[in-house]
Design a protein that fits this description.
Length: 318
Amino acid sequence: MHKNKLLLTGGCGFIGSNLVKKLEQKNYDVIILDNLSKGSLDYIKDCKARFIEADIRDQKSVAEAMQGVYGVIHLAAFGSVVESVESPEENFDINVRGTFNILNQCRKAGVQQVIFASTGGALIGNTPPPVNENSLPQPISPYGSGKLCGEAYCCSFAHAYDMNITALRFANVIGPVSWHKKGAVTAFMKSILNNQNITIYGDGTATRDFLFIDDLCNGIIQAYEKNLPGFTPVHLASGKEVSVRSLAQSICEVAGVSNYPIELLPRRPGEVEKNFGDYTLARQLFDFQPSTSLKKALSITWEWFKDQNRIIQKNKEN
């Protein structure tokens, strides 16, 4: 078992495809397990990682993927709050049963180190921000509940089987390779590219914190290399509160359409009203410090979306 060999679930998705490049730059030997339901092999075409097409609920495939690995970074998930409200059964099956299978196969294979991709806002719910590791989880969506269940299993496996498991509670992540995501940034950018009104659910005063993908990936690697003992939940966030209306206006500015039409629609169930995270503990434990401003993050993301849109339009013409 080599210390630099690790399994990355969901490695062909938004976060995973960005993360694997950084891991390989640090000479990690990466095995990617992904069922390609959301991600694409095109996202990792320049990577050396060994790829296994399989579902995290498939016991045999997961067991085979874990042979000889030192640690696991578990990103694969049913990642939409809105879709979890529409299909709580599927959300439970993937995020709870899938995570249990990953942990159980780690136990059987003797893998002692796991990073679990959790969430801040959806898990904590409508608690007055800023939220941190001492905030009481009160999820208001099946997605948040699923992640809380995942953390509960992480905690129990860490204690029962002497494993080191860190649950990283992500803020809202933005950056390249996010075309398939369901979040506000993706929706707003696609609306501009398609000459459609930007639509906001609610009055636009709902708040979030937005973290650039490079900062997040650096935080994941820092947490993995720190290998904190036992179970530790940690927020990876920007520490800055941004309203959805302000976000839309910032996107319009980087796209060069400052007076773009914005339409308000009734708010959707399951979505947290106000949330942003405090990353003090992450800074104390492994020197996490986000360095990319929201404007820069949005600008980089917008340029990627424009390029991706050109590729899509060209393929349609052909």
